[in-house]
Design goal:
The chain is of the alpha+beta class and about 110 residues long. The chain folds into two domains: about 30 residues; about 80 residues, no CATH class. Helix content is about 30%, strand content about 15%. Strands 3-2-1-4 form a four-stranded mixed sheet, with no helix packed on it. The N and C termini lie far apart (about 55 Å).
């Protein structure tokens, strides 16, 4: 059994590396046709969460604070969603199984 577990762990590592490489390639080639955004979350303790944008197609994600959005700029159409809905788009799912948000003004 131990040998099988070692083999499975090696396969998982290989697949994680391949996933990372393919994700980077996809993000470089993607035109970011569907972008969603979640607003910042204020906090009384100084630990507010920044606004975020993500491309639904390639999962490129950017924070709106600091230098602001670089790839997912304001000229791109986007929709504001809740944090919970936003986090669902961080993992790749078949687009046929994902309800793409309607794009337009906020």
């Amino acid at each position: 059994m131990r040998e099988r577990l070692v083999a499975i762990r090696a396969l998982q590592d290989k697949l994680e590396n391949e996933t990372e490489e393919l994700t980077k390639k996809l993000q470089k080639q993607c035109k970011h046709p569907v972008i969603i955004e979640t607003d910042y979350v204020p906090n009384d303790y100084g630990a507010a969460m920044p606004p975020l944008r993500i491309c639904v197609v390639c999962a490129l994600e950017e924070e709106g604070w600091g230098c602001g959005y670089q790839e997912l700029d304001v000229e791109k159409p986007f929709k504001e969603v809740s944090r919970d809905e936003f986090y669902e788009y961080r993992t790749f799912k078949a687009l046929e199984n994902v309800a793409l948000p309607k794009v337009g003004a906020r």
